[in-house]
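Provenance

Sequences were taken from public entries as deposited. Structures were produced by running a predictor on each sequence independently, with no templates supplied. The record for HTH lysR-type domain-containing protein from Neptuniibacter caesariensis is shown for reference.
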Amino acid sequence: MKFNQLKYFLKIAELGSVSAAARELYIAQPALSNQISALEKALEVELFVRTVKGVQLTPAGEKLVHHAGLILRQVENARADVVSDAVSPRGEVRLVIDASKAYTLLPLLVTEAARRFPEVQLKVTDAMSLVAARHIADGNVDMGLIPNAADLNDVEVLPVYRESMYLVGKNLGEGHNGRTILFEQLSDYPLAAPSRPHNIRMHIEQTALENRRPLDFRYEQNSGLGIRCLVNNGIANAIMPRDVMNTELERGELDALKIVQPSIERVQSLVWLKNRPMTTACRAIEELVIEVIAALCEQNVLDGEVMKRAE
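Predicted structure for HTH lysR-type domain-containing protein:
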């Protein structure tokens, strides 16, 4: 198996046509077909099914798309890393951020990364915690910022930030001191929340179980947009970090009450696979994420505390 063969294979898979891939790669079609045949012979599997309309991936081919992408990306990262240093890191960094933090972190993170590290290509994805953890486990990203990562296997975990949970919704101030709500009072409010086993749902349910206070999870929404829509329209309330709805809160459209007695807190951590080497570029972005979170905590944009790093 050769690197060029993997490149050719991915291009054919992308275009669904050997002839179209040959044109884009500036390679004669017979030569390209021979390379793919050699790759199939080396792997002892068929990668494509030939049809009159082009080619389709076999189940083995679909698996190879994933692995080939990772292999070629690792090679590119290695090439960039060996010519990098701490002052001028180079290469691509793929980062997944828990959806609850993306809106708050992205503006400062991407602008600072572009300013400080112009040779680093930072690609950020946001996802609900369950999907984000899967991206990390499958090697689709270099690292992730996700909550309560202690349950994951074969990963390095760097706790970064402890955040508090709020009840967020419309017209919540009545009957409260305007700032907090007792956990036992949450049962009076219909909630929108992700389904199990999303991290925040499991975390809230565990606290409710420990305190023998069942909650009214009336609407299950497995997207941040869906939960935001229901809350903004006054259909339901949500238990979430305050900063998720900072814009609406600042405009006075929503209220946020900090949950107390007991409080609900969770830890956001940077996570990466143990068997994946951290490039200089990844280390630079890791430090930048921590710095950005610390700055937003100081500005009271994030409500929580940056966790001290072990010596």
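The chain has ten helices and 14 strands.
The domain at 3-79 is CATH 1.10.10.10 (Arc Repressor Mutant, subunit A).
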